[in-house]
Amino acid sequence: MAIYPVIMCGGSGSRLWPASRPAHPKQFLPLVGALSMFQETVLRVADLGEPGDMVVVAGIAHAELIAAQLREIDVSATVLLEPEPRDSAPAMAAACAWIAGRDPDGVAVVVAADHHMPDGAAFRAAAVTAVDAARLGQIVTLGMRPASPSTAYGYISPGEATGAVRPVQAFVEKPDATTAQAYIEAGYLWNSGNFVVAAEVLLAELDAFAPAIAEAARAAVGPCAAGQSLLTEIFRTAPKISIDYAVMEKTRRAAVLPVDFAWSDLGAWDAVWQASDKDAAGNAIRGEALVIGSTDCLVRAPAGVQVTLVGVKDLAVVADGGQVLVCNLASSQQVKTAVDQLKAQGREAAAPAPPFHTVDQAAVWFDQWLKTSALPLWWTLGADHVRGGFREALTPEGAPVEAPRRSRVQTRQTFVYATAGLMGWQGPWRQAAWHGMDYFLARYRRPDGLFRAVVSNEGEPIDETAALYDQAFALLAMATLNQADPGHTDLAAEGQRHLAAVQVMRHPAGGFREEGAHPFQANAHMHLLEAAMAWMEGGGGPEWQALAAEIVELALTRFIDPEGGYLREFFDSDWAPAPGEDGRLIEPGHQFEWAWLLERWARRTGDADCGHAARRLYAAGLRGVDAKRGVAINALNDDFTLRDANARLWPQTEWLKAALILGEDALAPAQALARYLDTPAPGAWRDLNLPDGGFRAEPAPSSSFYHIAVACQALRPADASQRT
């Protein structure tokens, strides 16, 4: 019966706000030492099993964070990734299903990733004692002898002693102070939430008391690839319940091993202070702090933030991510209440953007957000793994939104995941990209070779319109996926066929005609130019360069006002400005987006006129930046008077891309964009910033991911060659 250490990485640690957030919860923070709590836990349990026998259960959003922290301490583990959190019972069941599949006699030592146990040797000795009982069929939990009548922990009433391991009489919930004192006097133990159990025993008990959990866990566990295994979608069907409620309060096998070594779940700032090294006055300081006449305080501050305490006592002062907490250490448990109120008021979200001091710092933050939050979220929840394709939107909390599916969402999401592959993301980019492309080619192609606009959730045609805008994104997705993963389907031939089909949309006066109320517009041409340049960069033939050159010429001679240097949106059939208000519309986001494209063209071809036009467009776009809110707004008139003061997300990405390639101030647009990414579900976004500075409550549109991904790619050091 081999021992398999199992580390549970669930929980968000909201009482340790603002340092602990769902995107980077407390288990991955260095709370009392140089290593994170997760890393300390790994090193504490590693010697219990053989190399390679350790199992980590965690959410998919933390996959790369876990991999990086394991590399830092040179430890290998099998990582089972949950597509969504289902509480401790399903997580333990998945780990035991994996162990049982490898070793039917295996014993799991299940520990929380965020517990502090400074005496690792004492813990291991206790675990070995518990393993002996587990081999006899008991489910053993470690019961900590209380150091105080804490109201922060649940308690265990142990039965009569017949040896080191005792039967459990009862599990009790967190008590009030008076009841906690009574529990201590009666010999109760703290419930540590650490378990030792034979894998097959736990699965058998789940079969008896919670069969849906056992069934989902066994079905969800698949072969492990490269140290990580994503539990299958059936894991989502497991009831969301703790192991205490699912098994421990019902089974006759429950046992407890009383232990005396120091232990804390570091559940709140008073516990962190208690476990930390302190100066002579009892102050635990991490970061830059000046402390005068103050005692028994905890201070945590990031680099560049100076904290000064004068004449105070028993305070926690924690600065992180643009937020500051000041509380009495005795009130640490109430921090969660404050966080809940801030969320209800829209003033706090799960992963607020940090205050960037440099563009390089912003690049690191956005890269981590993209790879550890956004890409996993939109593949697990934004993709429809039953009917195919990608969904239109997710709520800010991450719930899928059912709506008819536009073709541009399928092609944009395909583009995003192909781009992720080109950026070196280690997640399932290839599977995600082809998931979108295969669905798109099967569901949206019309008999004439063009692509329809909308299908139902079941993939049935709803809108047969073949918009030029949508054809452009089809070509862009094909070009990018062909570059990232050539060979699966002949996308080069698909691109050629589609380019030929698009020719029916040509306009006699030059360019192309769009469907709908504005047939002569710049926007669809902009994305057709982007697609043509993508094919050029991917080794396409001369026809793509000819198409790009044609659109560039149309932009320089028709779309861009020769005197003002700004770009209009709508035109008449002769490519003169459209009559009335339509012809006066200027979108700051499109000034930036065209500037980015024209500067790329200038660098590729040496066309100085394009470079000059790009800088004039950028200057025009800056006139649409609201200095008070720090965001690029939606629309101006051609005399630069205000037309629409709302600010969607996408103009911020285009501002950032243009600033980077032109060597302008990119920090301001990076900070603007980061505000939109501050959502309860890390990896989602807000779409519309209102004139009062708040955000409209609405789902995150999938189509915005294309804009964000390109901005993240432009920020990467590998793309520095495109900057000045």
Secondary structure elements and pairings:
Blueprint (H helix, E strand, L loop, with lengths): L2 E6 L28 H9 L9 E5 L3 H11 L4 E5 L5 H15 L4 E6 L7 H15 L4 E6 L10 E4 L7 E7 L4 H9 L3 E10 H11 L1 H10 L7 E3 L12 H6 L5 E6 L9 H7 L8 E3 L1 E5 L5 E3 L5 E5 L4 E6 L2 E6 L6 H10 L14 H22 L12 E2 L5 E2 L3 E2 H16 L6 H15 L10 E2 L5 E3 L4 H17 L6 H12 L20 H15 L4 H18 L28 H18 L2 H15 L2 E2 L4 E2 L2 E2 L5 E3 L2 E2 L1 H13 L4 H10 L11 E2 L10 E2 L2 H12 L9
Parallel strand pairs: 1-2, 1-4, 2-3, 3-9, 5-10, 11-13, 12-14, 13-15
Antiparallel strand pairs: 4-8, 5-8, 6-7, 6-8, 7-10, 15-16, 17-18, 17-28, 19-20, 20-21, 22-23, 24-25, 26-27
Which sheet architecture does the biggest sheet show? Answer: 5 strands, mixed, barrel
Beta-strand share of residues: 15-25%
The helix tally amounts to 22
Residue share in helices?
25-40%
**What oligomeric state best describes the polypeptide chains here?**
single chain
Terminal CA distance reads: 62 Å
Spatial strand arrangement across the major sheet = 5-8-6-7-10
Mean pLDDT, as a whole number?
92
Q: Would you count the extended β strands for me?
A: 28
Principal-axis shape: globular
Structural class: alpha/beta
Radius of gyration: 29 Å
Residue stretches low in confidence (pLDDT < 50, at least 5 long) are 349-355, 720-724
